[in-house]
Design brief:
Helix content: 10-25%
CATH class of the largest domain: Alpha Beta
InterPro entries: Redoxin, Thioredoxin-like_sf, Thioredoxin_domain, Thioredoxin_ResA/DsbE_sf
Organism: Pinibacter soli
Shape: globular
Number of strands: 24
Pfam families: Redoxin
Structural class: mainly beta
Number of helices: 4
Number of domains: 3
CATH architecture of the largest domain: 3-Layer(aba) Sandwich
Strand content: 35-45%
Domain Thioredoxin: 241-406
Protein name: TlpA disulfide reductase family protein
CATH topology of the largest domain: Glutaredoxin
Length: 406
């Protein structure tokens, strides 16, 4: 799905710079787009075991980042996911300034960044909310490429708002913001994707003049209508086994440089879950967390898993480095295979999984029965930011596994 940005919690070890340390307490960080739209988040600096730690808050989520280095008054922060880094200058005890840099399939994306000590609001609260917008909203995103249907799930307490947007291919993870009078602002950052949403609250059932921006330049408009029974279009991202096929046949290299095939002995007579993913994909991060936990608890039941990664480039070392972050962060014990095919390659399916119709979205999940035949394919993923929808996803996943095992 479109790349999503979330405000998580980042733990950063900071040393003394020119005799100074960063102040403990609340900070406000801002990614500064050239169009003036600010993608903001708050973080705390605390002392943990004698070291300063950044804790960036994004609704209910927290993310630790430990890969930090210093050179003079410069601070380099490598995020634990994605090809993402902050290059900052410590201006004084109460300010940081520099760049957020993120790798992509083409050139790096670069956004100016600034953080100021003592700013407690993500976005300032200036006026009482005109309406409470909690609930389910049928949403339409529009751009030059056409329209996309989504569902906004929002929770407003006072003037604070949290929520996410669900699409046919996944969700926008944890978003957080405020309502001032008739104006909504929300944002999210996960180290690889940065999003900002705003809209006018026309009345209790309509949001208008919506703006969605991502990264340094991407922009869409959106509108929403409150609808407790709103549903998403079916089959827009569907993927199937091609006529006359029922088994997959692939062999790719894992992160240790070893060839792994679906025909290997470890997969025979097992229920196999095949994760189609990429290290650049935010929903893949949530899915990897879920699958890793599930595998640890259930691998002795006759279950195997394997991830097929489609990365930004065909370079093995670059892909390996990015995927290691996923493997280490979530303690992934099942093989992660590098397909060697770029995620944006229009022939990615034909080159890697020709038995399937085109891969439409990341992540997608293929369920293989004990007989080696494909039994079901799920596209998209509703992660923990979607609340009850994540609970429903987990129940359905368990139901499919139980059915295949029996």
């Amino acid at each position: 799905m479109k790349q999503i940005i979330t405000f998580l919690t980042v733990t950063l070890f900071i040393t003394t710079v020119y005799g100074q340390t960063l102040k403990n307490g609340v900070w406000r960080g801002v990614l500064q787009r050239t169009d003036g739209n600010e993608i903001a988040f708050n973080f705390d600096v605390k002392q943990v075991q004698g070291k300063s730690v950044f804790i960036i808050h994004n609704a209910a989520e927290r993310l630790e980042v430990k890969d930090i280095s210093f050179a003079g008054d410069s601070c380099f922060i490598n995020m634990p996911f994605f090809e993402s880094q902050f290059r900052l200058k410590v201006i004084n005890n109460g300010e940081l300034a520099g760049l957020w840099i993120r790798g992509s399939s083409a050139k790096n994306l670069v956004v100016p960044f600034k953080a100021v000590y003592g700013k407690t609001d993500r976005y300032p609260i200036t006026a009482k909310a005109s309406h409470n917008i909690s609930g389910r909203w049928a949403t339409t995103f529009s751009s030059a490429d056409g329209n996309e249907q989504a569902i906004a799930e929002l929770v407003q307490k006072g003037q604070k708002v949290t929520g996410t947007f669900l699409t046919t291919t996944g969700d926008y993870r944890f978003q957080e913001g405020v309502v001032n009078n008739d104006f909504l602002q929300m944002s999210g950052f996960d180290g690889g994707h940065a999003y900002y949403f705003s809209a006018k609250i026309k009345d209790a059932k309509h949001l208008s003049d919506g703006l969605f921006v991502s990264g340094p330049a991407y922009k869409q408009s959106w509108i929403a209508e409150k609808n407790d029974t709103a549903t998403l279009p079916q089959n827009e991202a569907a993927m199937y086994v091609r006529s006359g096929e029922d088994k997959l046949n692939f062999s790719f290299t894992d992160l240790e440089g070893v060839k792994v095939s679906i025909n290997d002995e470890r997969f025979k007579n097992k229920v196999v879950v095949i994760q189609i993913m990429g290290s650049w994909c935010p929903n893949c991060m949530d899915e990897t967390a879920f699958l890793s936990r599930f595998y640890d608890k259930n691998k002795n039941r006759g279950i195997e898993m394997v991830a097929l990664a489609y990365e930004y480039s065909e370079d093995y070392q670059r892909s390996q480095k990015s995927l290691r972050k996923f493997q280490e962060r979530f303690n992934v014990q099942y093989p992660i295979l590098i397909t060697g095919v770029r995620a944006n390659d229009t022939l990615r399916t034909q080159k890697t999984l020709p038995q399937l119709t085109p891969i439409m979205t990341f992540p997608s999940t293929v369920f293989v029965g004990k007989d080696g035949k494909v039994k079901k394919i799920d596209t998209g993923f509703n992660g923990p930011g979607t609340g009850v929808h994540y609970d429903e996803y987990k129940k359905e996943f368990n139901r499919i596994i139980d059915e295949l095992l029996n």
